[in-house]
Here is the input.
Amino acid sequence: MGRLEALLNAGTDNATHAALVCHPHPMFGGTMHNKVAFHTMKALNGFGFPVLRFNFRGAGLSEGEHDYGAGEADDVSAALDWLTREFHLPLILAGFSFGAAVGFYVACPDERVKAAIALGLPVSPMDGRDYEFHFLQHCAKPKLFISGSRDQYGSQARLREVLEFVPEPKQLVIVQDADHFFEGRLPEMREAIESWLRSTLQV
Here is the structure.
């Protein structure tokens, strides 16, 4: 594995968790500077958590080439390992679109990750991309799913179909009039994250 470009937003001395944010598809312009990833970081960092964002292999200054999810799963694991070594805190994973699909695949079986947030889960992808979500049926940790009512990569009907067999605890928030990128609705998305964190983690 090559070197990954990353940014750490420092937390407080009494932080209860550390968090990782995974960006959308790098082959379609996704980087750690994506607006959804940035606002997700701000929501998590607002609770005093140190928050790490990174660029998947081949994106930005990260070494390597896009690996259609397989290598990117290794990138997520490497980032979680770094957070564990650096902070020795329970972890929260958040991912947007491709980052949610790959991030949850790694986070669900990882006991260090105590809660996971999926933004714009791409359950109805276009452009020939497809994602497998059967692994969610075994993901028993607290999970938040946030999607826009006009998400072109995640119809509400398909999303509810996927989540029907996902075990509790889980919560689905639909942001009205939001598209896949939550354009013009980022404050509502951020508030949904903050509200869920307060109720789920008691922070």
Remarks:
- The two ends are 35 Å apart (CA to CA).
- Residues 73 and 102 are 6 Å apart (CA to CA).
- Residues 6-201 form a domain with the Rossmann fold fold (CATH 3.40.50.1820).
